[in-house]
Specification:
0% helix
């Protein structure tokens, strides 16, 4: 099982980034997918999620209207488009796969660093 995030980097305040997460080794289309982030010195927090069929999404309040989570089940990919980035969005962003209805069946990626700074 692998989840590999990419697309992080340094961006100026107000800029945009598109994060990608490539999944392999499991039945991607059966899993709900989420993005989490962990800022320096803080705990990991939920950012956004999308159901296995892509029909329902959820966002943390601070990212509503500024981000879009999407997935391509044919390519085993999940994305997070982030706009109007702020310095407080600086964090390592992680991809998580969760099997709905199962107990403790989930996988994490290793993260990609997003730095928002001028």
């Amino acid at each position: 099982v692998q989840l590999v995030e990419s697309g992080g980097g340094l961006v100026q305040p107000g800029g945009s980034l598109r994060l990608s997460c490539a999944a392999s080794g499991f039945t991607f289309s059966s899993y709900d997918m989420s993005w989490y982030r962990q800022a320096p010195g803080k705990g990991r927090e939920f950012v956004a999620s999308i159901t296995s069929n892509g029909r329902s999404t959820t966002y943390i309040n601070s990212m509503k209207g500024r981000s879009t989570i999407s997935r391509d089940n044919a390519k085993n990919m999940v994305y997070l488009q982030m706009n109007s980035l702020k310095p407080e969005d600086t964090a390592v962003y992680y991809c998580k796969a969760v099997l709905p209805g199962a107990i403790n069946v989930y996988f994490w990626g290793k993260g990609t660093l997003v730095t928002v700074s001028s």
